[in-house]
Amino acid sequence: MSERINRLQIPMEELTITPGSACQGCGAALAARLVFKAIGPNAIRHRIPCCPDSTTAHPSANSVFESGGAMLTGTWRGLKAIGRTDVQVVGFFGDGGTYDIGFQSLSAAAERNENIWVITKDNEAYMNTGNQRSGATPIFARTSTTPVGSVIKGKQMRKKKIAKIFAAHGIPYIATTSVGYPEDLIAKINYGKTVEGFKMLIIQSPCPVGWRYDGSKTIAMARLGVQTGIWPLFEIIDGEKFKLNYKPRELKPVTEYLKPQARFRHLTDENISLIQEDTAKEWETLLKSDELGRVLL
Amino acid sequence: MIGIRIHGRGGQGAVTASRLLADASFRDGKFSQAIPMYGTERRGAPLVAYVRIDDVRVRERELVHEPDVVIVLDPLLSKEQSVASGLKKGGLLILNSKLPPEKVEIAGDIKIATVDATKIALETLKRPITNTAILGAFSKSVGYPTMESIEKSIRKQFPGRVGEMNIAAIHRSYEEVTPVVQATHTEPVVEESDIAVGGYGVLKDVSSWRVFTPIIDLDKCTGCRSCWLFCPETAIQWKDDRPEIEYHKCKGCGICVEECPVKCIAFERVVV
Amino acid sequence: MVGNKATATAVKLARVQVASAFPVTPQTTITEYLSDMVANGELDAEFVNVEGELSSHVVVQAASRVGARTFVCTSGPGQLYMHHPMHQTSDNRLPVVMATVHRGNKGMMPDHTDLMSQLWTGWMQFYVEHNQEALDTCLMSYKIAEDERVRLPIAFGYDGYVLSYTAEPVEIPDQKDVDDWLPPYKAMPSILPDEVLPENLGGRWDRSDPQKRWQEHHEAIVNAKDVIVEVNESYGKKFGRSYGNGLTEEYRTEGAEAVLVAMGSLTGTARAAIDRLRDDGLNVGLVKLRCFLPFPKEDFQEIGKKVGAIGMIDRNVCLGHGGAAYTQIRNAIYDLEERPSVLEFIAGMGGKEVRVDDIYKIGKKTLKAAKSGGVSTSTEWV
Ligand SMILES: Cc1ncc(C[n+]2csc(CCOP(=O)(O)OP(=O)(O)O)c2C)c(N)n1
Ligand code: SF4
Ligand code: SF4
Ligand code: SF4
Ligand SMILES: [Mg+2]
Questions:
Q1: Structurally, how many domains does chain C consist of?
Q2: CA atoms in the 13 A half-sphere facing the CB of A145
Q3: Residue C309's beta-bridge partner residues?
Q4: Residue B236 contacts residue B192 (beta carbons within 8 Å)
Q5: What backbone phi and psi angles, to 5 degrees, belong to C159?
Q6: Which of A4, A206, B8, C182 could bond to A221 as cystine, CB 3.0-4.6 Å?
Q7: Parent domain of C347
Q8: In A, which residues are within 8 Å of C192 by CB distance?
Q9: pLDDT of the residue at B271
Q10: Which residue from A147, A34, A102, A260 is spatially nearest to A137, judged by alpha carbons?
Q11: For chain A, what is the largest distance between any 2 Cα atoms, rounded to a whole number of angstroms?
Q12: Which residues contact C128 (CB under 8 A, 6 or more apart)?
């Protein structure tokens, strides 16, 4: 499991090349900065189409949107073949490239337990193309393909529990984290760097444009997601051992997270109660998992 | 035929302005074309849109490289020499600016009219969105499209109360725009900068993205590193155990201001 | 040795370091041969068993980029499924080698529509006649693709069933000779963190002239003809076998009034037909079109000067356009002062058997056009 670090242990060296071309207050731009700080320079960064987040000073390889897992696999096997297993193979992908179009090839790479990093900046929609829904979009959220119409209002399906889905592949390490908790994020990368095999990190990365809140509130939004239990921070080792990394005595009500985001403005009280119930139920499961030290679905 | 270029930034509605202008011209019996910048729009990033207006159907698909009129929606961009780039000799620059045209430092054999569209927008729409307000100034300075047609186009685009607020804004700017005068300067006073437009990859200087600028009061700073840690653009450097802002990297998102636990980062509206 | 075994053997001889493929008839047995070779330690390579062809393609694309020699193979539907990343592989100028064991786009049986559907992907394409040529072409492909003047991926195709599962004698070169002839592969430019050029960090892009990439890519393919000719020659010197000039190969064209042009395994059948035509005193020769991309335009201009008619037998059809090679040949001869007639024959589609007799008739018809003209030039479905 990851070992807690404090702020002073966060590396000072920056590996991003800035200023980048992400929007003002982009959570994913911060996610990239923090991730690659912790990964360090000896890595090849892999890209598939997505928002620009932050460019980092790494050699870069890119391929088609649907191929994240295969691209990382190819690089890893190539490095093995030429005797350069010291180089880390890191994919930094969007939720679309992870939950949806890239899912098949990632699942296969997980099954083969390739020695790679899959890091997802989860902004809960296809932002690069202008905020269309993805498998990561939460229930009822408004996106440009789940609009608030007179008959149907927002997305009608729940978000995929992607961490548990990948944990079910039995991979050595998967964790969730958030740009609101950089110490947690970096501690998890530090731990993952000691693990050989398939490592995955799902990072909550608020997007002011798609979620519709003021860009200065990106960190505040990330924290509220965690503090309301909507975005729990946990880690799973070998598809089994479980730890909940953030456990407040009491969760904040989900409205504190939902209200400031205009993508949820149309929610009815009924909608909100459903989200509250879902969250409470999942939280109970997570607490239980934490107690047992074993993941429960 | 006249060609128009509109400068704004992501989120300010430059594309909507171009469509309204084209739509209103069409209502006046002209042919028109509204072209958005190709590529993806990023909030805060400067961008351009183009319009062509003609008596016959517009067929060409080039961008407008030598506009007759340039409209600048953003008060900060209204200080940049580069907004006049390519503008035809004798062409017209309509700026969103508090300054009278005589005081504008943009040089060239061009004419200038100014209007404080931000003030008008804040007073009529309660938001600094200037894309409609500026259209009244255009109608007055250029002579078309007619205000009736612009009104119709706005009502179609924004039905209801919002539309009426926008219509109030265009009438104010019609009244308040200054007369068109010859530019005071013939030689550039401010250096022509590369107005950083969006896209992908690394940019040089994003100062022009800022509407607000963070300013750290080091006397009150406790050295907690929050601002450094959360700045997405590494605009805050850590030097001698104190934060220091590198302004060419700062997009003015306000995260540092929000995250400073002792509230010692002021967020000042950029003076124009 | 069957065609698929010949290919797998060439992969082993080339000391491929990363291979990936997904089973699809009639390519499947290559994946099995390679798996066996790796499992038995005969081939020191990573053979990646993926979940689909698109992934197999991207695996070798990425491995090639870090500096591993790679191989991928497929057939019909798999070929179509991996279309998307093929563009990236060529755009990144990666010398991946691919075997396409032809299976047409309508059904299980062979024609060339699977690989022909990739014409716009920026790959070089070879069509081979027999199992020996499959082995030899595979080895030559690495030498051509990795040449610093070229650096482009190559696909070589051979007809499914007809070659993939048909056994015939194949001479296997000595490993030591192959090692002498084919130096190890090195990626250019390197993307290893300690070797990458500072200006390439971050994968920044140059947006100044988006069309330049297309022009350079196109010119690189066209200019690769010289290297193909060179490699064919040096292969001949080293191993005692070469194929015409590497691009086209002529058979009994001396004094011919007309020639037929064939691709892939049909060429073999055509040879037999030519022999019969010649026996019957009919002056018809044969040209094997081996390298389709880059298209050997100059070769056909030379041939066009000497004969009165060319009969192209396409085992493909661009629906609504016609045979792909026919169109190119007509294009090539247009510049000649005196142009021969060019006749279009479409044969072997969907695996329809093409017999010596069929080609004999094509030969006669083409000869008639050469002698008298007056033959309909509308497409003939054989
Ligand atoms: C095969 C393919 N389909 C669609 C696209 C268009 N496309 C580019 S990025 C993108 C969405 C990316 O969403 P996500 O992975 O969540 O990343 P984000 O943009 O949110 O950072 C889409 C749909 C593409 N590039 N390739
Ligand atoms: S749309 Fe959202 S995720 Fe994309 S760059 Fe802008 S803020 Fe970042
Ligand atoms: S305003 Fe935003 S970009 Fe500027 S220094 Fe603060 S956090 Fe960084
Ligand atoms: S957040 Fe505020 S107190 Fe902390 S280092 Fe920055 S300016 Fe100083
Ligand atoms: Mg996304």
A1: 2
A2: 13
A3: C258, C341
A4: no
A5: -70, 130
A6: A206
A7: 248-381
A8: 44, 59, 84, 87
A9: 72
A10: A147
A11: 60
A12: C134, C137, C156, C157, C158, C163, C264, C290
Sheet holding A199-204, edge to edge: A60-62, A43-47, A88-94, A117-122, A199-204, A173-178, A234-237, A241-244
DSSP conformation letters of C88-124: HHHHTT---EEEEEE--SSSSS--THHHHTTGGGS-E
B200 vs B177: CA distance, rounded Å: 37
> CA dist C183 to A247, B73, C14, C332, Å?
59, 61, 9, 36
H or E element: which one contains A220?
helix A218-227
Q: What is the pLDDT of residue B38?
A: 67
First and final C-alpha spacing in chain A: 20
Are the CB atoms for B230 and B172 separated by under 8 Å?
no
For the four alpha carbons of A165, A166, A171 and A172, in that order, the dihedral sign comes to negative
Report the distance separating Cα B243 and Cα C216, nearest Å: 47
- Sequence letter at residue C375: V
Q: Supply φ then ψ for residue C380, to 5 degrees.
A: -110, 125
Which residues 6+ apart lie within 8 Å of C376 measured at CB?
none
Task: Name the closest-CA residue to atom 2, ligand 3.
Answer: B253
pLDDT tens digit string along C51-86? 999 999 999 999 999 999 999 999 999 999 999 999
Domain boundary among the residues C171, C205, C239 is at C239
The pLDDT score that the predictor gives to residue C373 is 74
- Burial of C289: CB neighbours in 10 Å, binned 0-12, 13-18, 19+: buried
Which helix H or strand E contains B9, and what residues bound it? strand B2-9
**Positive or negative CA dihedral for C170, C171, C175, C179?**
negative
The CA distance from C354 to C315, in Å, is 10
* B260 in contact with ligand 3, CB cutoff 6 A: no
Q: What is the mean pLDDT of residues C272-287?
A: 98
Question: Is pLDDT above 70 for C207?
Answer: no
For residues C226 and C118, membership in a common domain is answered with yes
Per the structure block, which two tokens stand in for C186? Answer: 């090195």
Q: If you measure from the C-alpha of residue A296 to the centroid of ligand 2, how many angstroms do you get, rounded to a whole number?
A: 33
- How far is Cα C372 from Cα C368, in angstroms, rounded to an integer? 6
| C143's tokens | 């030498």
List of chains touching B (3+ CB pairs within 8 A): A, C
Pick the CATH number of B2-182 from 3.30.450.40, 3.40.50.1820, 3.30.559.30, 3.40.920.10: 3.40.920.10
CATH superfamily for A12-292 is: Thiamin diphosphate (ThDP)-binding fold, Pyr/PP domains (3.40.50.970)
C41: left (phi over 0), alpha (psi -120 to 50) or beta: left
**From CA C156, how far away is CA C162, in angstroms rounded?**
15
Q: What CATH number is given to the structural domain containing C356?
A: 3.40.50.920
Which of C239, C269, C300 terminates a domain? The answer is C239
Q: Identify the chains in contact with C, defined as 3+ C-beta pairs within 8 A.
A: A, B
Q: What is the pLDDT of residue B193?
A: 74
Chain A residues within 8 A of B232 when measuring between CB atoms: 22, 25-27, 29-30, 33, 54, 218
Provide the percentage of residues in chain A whose pLDDT is more than 90: 99
Could you tell me if A294 and A242 are in contact, meaning their C-beta atoms sit under 8 angstroms apart?
Answer: yes
- Two tokens at A201? 């990190």
CA of A53 to the centre of ligand 2 (A): 7
d(CA A233, CA A231): 7
* Per-residue model confidence as pLDDT tens digits over C78-94: 999 999 999 999 999 99
| φ, ψ of residue A294 in degrees (nearest 5) | -140, 135
**ipTM score:** 0.96
Which residue type does C43 have?
A: L
